[in-house]
Inverse folding.
């Protein structure tokens, strides 16, 4: 009898290993996994002992870090969508030695770089930022990659936050710090997507653009003093129009109505605070004090 030789596909081996080790393979994952394996991509699995983690008092896990060389600058997001329940949120922090990182195969937009806003956003910035991104997705659809931040770590003027120090950069894998005049440029990208809007893996490219950019919401705190001169009168008189502009700006950014914003500002339809008056200050004339009782 002639021997029978059976060739087992790498995909079959991978799926069998995962199944034997207690991992559930979602429907539709096999073709995606097969396409990655055909490209020569490698995957690794990490197990976390929750019992030892709890006993050690660890509440957060350090990120897994791996180093490899590849001609492809991409993220295999399709595999993660195989068992996704609804849209996915993706944040990419890219560190390069050249400049800003941008997508190759998807539309790219920058967030607004200066939105004037009322002071209440300082105490509720997380909900403002979430509403703003939801509104962007409503306007442009999913499958758009937004640049939220792009900054050269080698200088700071002005700084949105302190630049990464040498130890922080090394912990992120920046291996070129000992080169003459090294450049470390950080880009933050943000995308919301589903299977229909992201049919391909996200392909990226590093550019030579080192222009600093940050999406920001700007708050100008109102002066709270008492008006006792013509300049102060003019300032106080300008506040209603300024408040209306800030409310309109924030409404356009978040998708909230101007009425919603005005309510949160605590002002009336005339853009005045409770008890506030637009009657200008008038200094007492000299003749008014002569016969004062």
């Amino acid at each position: 009898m002639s021997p029978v030789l059976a060739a087992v596909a790498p995909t079959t081996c991978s799926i069998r290993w995962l199944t034997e080790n207690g991992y559930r393979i979602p429907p539709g994952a096999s073709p995606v996994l097969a396409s990655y394996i055909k490209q020569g991509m490698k995957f690794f699995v990490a197990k976390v002992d929750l019992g030892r983690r709890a006993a050690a008092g660890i509440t957060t896990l350090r990120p897994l870090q791996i180093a490899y060389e590849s001609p492809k600058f991409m993220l295999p997001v399709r595999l993660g969508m195989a068992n996704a329940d609804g849209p996915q949120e993706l944040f990419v922090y890219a560190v390069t030695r050249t400049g800003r990182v941008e997508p190759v195969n998807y539309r790219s937009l920058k967030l607004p770089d200066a939105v004037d806003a009322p002071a209440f956003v300082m105490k509720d910035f997380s909900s403002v930022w979430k509403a703003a991104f939801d509104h962007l997705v409503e306007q442009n659809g999913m499958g758009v990659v937004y640049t939220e931040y792009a900054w050269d770590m080698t200088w700071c003027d002005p700084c949105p936050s302190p630049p990464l120090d040498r130890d922080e950069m090394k912990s992120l894998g920046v291996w070129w710090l000992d080169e003459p005049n090294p450049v470390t440029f950080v880009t933050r990208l943000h995308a919301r997507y589903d299977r229909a809007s992201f049919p391909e893996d996200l392909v990226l490219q590093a550019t030579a653009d080192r222009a600093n950019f940050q999406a920001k919401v700007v708050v100008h705190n109102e002066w709270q003093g008492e008006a006792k001169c013509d300049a102060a009168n003019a300032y106080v008189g300008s506040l209603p129009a300024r408040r209306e502009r800030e409310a309109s700006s924030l409404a356009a950014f978040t998708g909230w109505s101007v009425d919603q914003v005005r309510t949160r500002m605590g002002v009336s339809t005339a853009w005045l605070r409770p008890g506030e008056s637009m009657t200008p200050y008038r200094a007492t004339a000299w003749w008014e004090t002569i016969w004062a009782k």
Summary: The chain has three domains: 8-47, 65-219, 230-285.
